[in-house]
Amino acid sequence: MLSVFGERLRAAFVPPRYIAPSFSGIDLSASGVKAVRLTPGARGLTLASYTEARLSAGAFTDGEIIDRAETVAVLTTAARDADISTANAALPESKSYLFETAIQGSRKVEWRTAIEQHLDELVPLPPPETAFDFVNMGQDTQGNTLVAGVGFARRIVDETLSVFDEANIGVCALEDEPFAVARALIPAGDPSTVLIIDVGKTTTKMAIIAGRIPRLATTIGIGGHALTLAVQKYFGVTEAEARKVKAERGIVPAPGNEDYLAAMLSTVSAISDEISRRFEYWQEKATLRGTHEPVSRVILAGGNASVRGLPEYLESSLRVPVTTGDVFTNLASRDAWIPELDYTESLAYATAIGLALRDDARRYL
Fold this sequence. Notes:
Layout: E1 2-3, E2 23-29, E3 32-41, E4 44-54, E5 60-61, E6 64-65, H1 68-81, E7 86-91, E8 97-103, H2 108-117, E9 130-139, E10 145-153, H3 154-166, E11 170-176, H4 177-185, E12 193-199, E13 204-210, E14 213-220, H5 224-235, H6 239-249, H7 258-289, E15 297-301, H8 310-318, E16 322-324, H9 343-346, H10 350-357
Parallel strand pairs: 2-7, 7-11, 12-15, 15-16
Antiparallel strand pairs: 1-11, 2-3, 3-4, 5-6, 8-10, 9-10, 12-13, 13-14
Helix pairs in contact: 4-10, 5-6, 5-7, 7-8
């Protein structure tokens, strides 16, 4: 959402292939960098290139760049491999502050001024040290404009821009992760309220999306690597072997694997409990106050979303349908092309693809 160079002119038609621009997204996280480049065609956007470059443990932690030199090197490698010179980039959800407010005025410049005047009530940061942006959600019954916004500490924005600059990657726009993920996984024009759960390596991110706009988001400090460690401890195997066992067995009950399943579920239940607590708060708020629609379904994404049995486990806990996502939902129909990126692997690219889709002329923001 945080536009660096402002809005650009967007064609309402698909340009000829030889002058068609590429839409690119780069997702920097604790596990590394994922970069994608999309290409528009007569039938829509398709995936032109994708790559992943790993970061060592601790190089990027809790949304903070710890090892700047390694981060720059990995960004440089990913951009080169994906043939990217400019891109939209993600800002970490764990460092963001979502807010909603009602304001007066008819133009965006008036809305921004109104938000700035009481920014300290919306974001728990000193206003001079805060960067923010927002999206119009319509009007309330009093005729005020309702907006959803997000704020970041300026130092996070500046640090992100500086490492991209050092890697010689032009940043067209910065955006909070949940906005990008929602754009990738939820069909354009879908007004429903959805919970997206992104199960990464070291964290699990959840965001409640209404009308493709994030309304609540949080990061849980447990991810899929904890499941890998549980397998390692139980079987006494290497990490690579543990990942293979995790993929094959998941959390599906089977004769003779009761102890293994108990070891796995001790971690899964910790993630599920954290999700359930926030989920139930939203559902109760929607029911009692009537200010929000209740969540109707859950979409799983992230590198560990494909663990066997996970959708069924969460569905039994949350009592709404749970499915794994399709990151190509808003690209060209699969009748027109077949992605080279494997489905299971693609679940880790939701943020990067959503960032690239920001340049689509049909995007909502």
